[in-house]
Design brief:
By secondary structure, the protein is of the alpha+beta class. Helices cover 33% and strands 34% of the residues. The chain is built from eight helices and 18 strands. It is flat and about 80 Å long. It catalyses: ATP + protein L-histidine = ADP + protein N-phospho-L-histidine.
Length: 343
Amino acid sequence: MKNTNVTVELLKLEKLLNKVGDLVITNSMMAQSIENLPSSDEKKSLIEKITLLQRHIVELQDYATDIRMIKFESMGEIYTSYLNDITPKDKSIKLKIVGGETKVDKSLIEQLDDLIKMLISNAVSYGIETKQERIQKEKNEEATIRLIVSQLNGQISFSIEDDGEHIEEELDNLEIIKEEITKLNGDLEIAKNQNGSIYTMIVPLTHSILDGLNIKIGDSLFILPTSSIVESIQPTKEMIKYVGDGTSQLLMLRNEFIPIIKLYEYFNITAKAKKLEDGILIIVKSNEQKAAFLIDEFLQQQQVVLKAIETNFKKIQSVAGATVRGDGSIGLIIDVKTILEAH
């Protein structure tokens, strides 16, 4: 059987996805122009055609995105070889990959490769005991480092878990890892359990095209990634509970208490609905955190092209990026994760 694989430069794939992004924006502009036309049979026909074009663009984006994706298990040999190279003779360590079926963007792996290796190196140097020490502790002479990959809610996590002793001191290169993860709008989480240490890097997926819900607060429009949305409700007074001195409010939804965040206060803008029962609460989630965003109304859902603001301006807190709307205006995409962590 002939080999049907071809090698493509990552830069060319980046250009292809960027061009698909341009098509999304152009299609959105055309749809907006058609929407502004007076009602007629011709307008109805144009709407059908633009809807078909949008479907083709979505399929093209899926194909282009899939080309960039690899199963993480294909990286197993690389990290196993790296582990073997840095393991001293007085230690015995094996690498186990969990979640190897998870598909990961090639460019994201390139950005995280050095950081993953740093965390493996830390586990070898500081976490894993020598064979003799492990025997004395009645542990298996061969230690295990687990590289766990999982994907949820538009984010992907890479955990390096060892079954060695607890690390008490701050590692030399931990600050470097934190800085690099922050540049990717991600987080580094450190946890201990009875078996050892777990270092988890959580970063957004690098897809530049996402589904967004247009929301309105006063006269301001924002875009909320649909991957973060759980549900939306029109709250009643009975669903609102007050805590502390009465200024903090919680939403009681199906026996679950969810903190309420008034986005008009968060962004310091004037809203139409200041009473909770006059507005809409959108339940959002990031990792295990939930919150209810108070907004005035939500509008249509659409595909948007995510562009980094800091490229041409500067990083704005609580804003994941920007996009070009169908009318040519700039739309700000809300960073749900940052808002929930700051609350």
